[in-house]
Amino acid sequence: MPHSSQPAWQRVLTDNWQRRGPLAWGLWPLSLLVHALVRLRQGLYFSGFLRQHTVPVPVIVVGNVMAGGAGKTPVVMALVQHLQAHGLHPGVISRGYGRSTRDCREVLADSPVAEVGDEPALIRRRTGAPVVVARRRIEAARALLQAHPQTDVLISDDGLQHYALARDIEICVFDDRGTGNGMLLPAGPLREPWPRHVDLVLHTGSHPAFTGYTARRALAAQALRADGRRIDLATLADDGRPLLAVAGTARPQAFFDMLQALGLPLSLTIALPDHADYAHWQRPQDRDYTLLCTEKDALKLWRRHPDAWAVPLEFAPEPAFFAVLDRLLTDAMRARLSSPHGHPTP
Q1: In terms of C-beta distances under 8 Å and separation of at least 24 residues, what long-range contacts does 35-42 make, across chains too?
Q2: Whole-angstrom Cα distance, residue 71 to residue 63?
Q3: Which of 103, 158, 290, 305 is 20–30 Å from 94 (CA)?
Q4: Cα-flanking dihedrals φ and ψ of residue 295, to 5°?
Q5: CA 325 to chain centre
Q6: Long-range contacts of the stretch 305-311 (C-beta < 8 A, 24+)
Q7: What's the CATH number for 59-217+316-333?
Q8: Cβ contacts of residue 313 below 8 Å, gap of 6+?
Q9: Cα–Cα distance between 178 and 253 in angstroms, integer?
């Protein structure tokens, strides 16, 4: 039995973003205003009227043009682990969406999730790479490089439209929604017109809507608990207790569908808003549920429900994606070595 706390108006709007119906056309005049503002802002940066800040190491931006999540954080973690495996020392910068603080701070192993954001905390936990959050990404970049001078490449989690930070490689991430109805906000889901130039397009879903690289995306075979204990999903499916799955992500139904595809008979699913903090969430008491959640949610849920089982997502872009990325990164590093100022010449 599914349950969702998403406001009804939000569900109606996002559903209509997949087609050009009466609601989309009714909002179309507002999207024309958004289009004009987006183009004006881009022009101010690309003409040099507004300054783009550079840093002495290559910058990879992982973002999207769609409102809502498209799977950027798994891509960031996969990139970090790939670069680490090749002897590099990547660092990650993020705005830290949903955090209670507004300053620039490093994400440490014991940082409260509420103060740094759930996605930066997950990236730090999974990869061990240095992570810094700040409202201005250039501030986060400078702080990270000062604290960790061995860092030789920066990855920006989101920020495709944050033009104040100059970047060397842009990766645009899409899920199975593609570009929806192809219209800009609020008539459609696009933050800016598509297509636009990016270096790499990566599809995180199973049904790419247009040309780009793909990735293998699946849940791990084991779930883990706050105390470090692990258990096979097959064991959870067969132990007889009713299963409750909760998710506070951009697309919670995708998590529920993946669990059911693995044979887990979910008795109840609860969809919460993306980045839900679980501070006031009440666990249903009508039955003795085994609680399942995403790894991102677990960092907040474990504070009050340490028995919750987190099911990690295993994400692996195709080898061809990494081959192109490696070539682009090598070129960016060579450009910096050839520049007397530590960044590519104009």
Answers
A1: 35/184, 35/193, 38/184, 38/191, 38/192, 38/193, 41/163, 42/163, 42/192
A2: 9
A3: 305
A4: -65, -35
A5: 19
A6: 306/225, 306/226, 306/227, 307/225, 307/226, 308/225, 308/226, 309/223, 309/224, 309/225, 309/231, 309/236, 310/223, 310/224, 310/225, 311/219, 311/220, 311/223, 311/233, 311/255, 311/259
A7: 3.40.50
A8: 74, 217, 218, 219, 220, 294, 295
A9: 17
Quick: pLDDT tens for 211-247: 999 999 999 999 999 999 999 999 999 888 999 999 9
- Kindly state the average pLDDT of the residues 99-106: 96
pLDDT band at 198 (very low <50, low <70, confident <90, very high): very high
In terms of Cβ atoms closer than 10 Å to its own Cβ (0-12, 13-18, 19+), residue 41 is middle
Q: State residue 70's pLDDT score.
A: 79
Q: What residues form DSSP beta bridges with 271?
A: 4, 247
pTM of the model: 0.91
- Do 51 and 164 contact (CB within 8 A), yes or no? yes
Quote the pLDDT of residue 4: 54
Distances from the Cα of 60 to the Cαs of 42, 48, 242, 274, in angstroms?
19, 21, 43, 24
DSSP state of 87: T
Token digits of residue 271: 């969809």
Tell me which residue has tokens 């205003």: 33
Q: Is the pLDDT of residue 345 over 50?
A: no
